[in-house]
Design a protein that fits this description.
Elements lengths: L36 H9 L12 H4 L10 E12 L24 E9 L8 E8 H5 L6 H18 L5
Antiparallel strand pairs: 1-2, 2-3
Bound molecules: zinc ion.
């Protein structure tokens, strides 16, 4: 990606990085922060980023096990489930159905692993949390190989349990 010349370069206010692993930067222009937890923490402390947990509706839309920006995955043990839409997208029957809107179609993975649960958590603990594929990709402690391994293991486990009537 050539983004040097003319174009005004976006830089993380935390570490000065000109790239972020997430689809978009955290915080609003001109106060941008990259995906790194330390940078997000700096943004929250500077009042440039509203922590997810304080945003109305975001928590209640899920089952309370949604991964948030203040969290970090330290160890990936397994993918326990997947779903293809945002939590809450199926809520409420409208007339004849409750179709999931196209913009709610996002891949979520229920990850079992060791998580730092907020910005003050230094030790972390084991548990299950729903992460989007993008959030998982942005985790610096998790290698591409570990992600791929977990994905393959998930598929194998599903195949093994998916027993058609004989
Ligand atoms: Zn940064």
């Amino acid at each position: 990606m050539e983004e040097e010349e003319e174009q005004e370069e976006i830089k993380c206010l935390g570490c000065g990085s000109t790239s972020t692993r997430t689809k978009s930067w955290h915080g609003r222009a001109p106060n941008h922060y990259c995906h790194k937890r330390g940078c997000i923490r700096a943004g929250v402390e500077a009042g440039h980023i509203t922590p997810r947990s304080n945003q109305q509706g975001s928590r209640s839309a899920g089952d309370g096990r949604e991964f948030t920006e203040e969290m970090e995955l330290l160890e990936l043990e397994m993918i326990a489930a997947t779903r293809f839409f945002k939590a809450g997208a199926l809520r409420g029957e409208v007339k004849n159905g409750n179709k999931v809107p196209a913009d709610a179609r996002v891949l979520y993975l229920l990850i079992y692993g060791k998580f730092l649960r907020d910005l003050d958590d230094e030790k972390g603990c084991w548990g299950h949390f729903w992460m989007t594929a993008e959030q998982l990709r942005a985790q610096e402690k998790i290698s591409d190989d570990a992600r791929k391994e977990a994905r393959d293991a998930y598929r194998d486990a599903e195949d093994a349990l998916w027993v058609e009537g004989e």
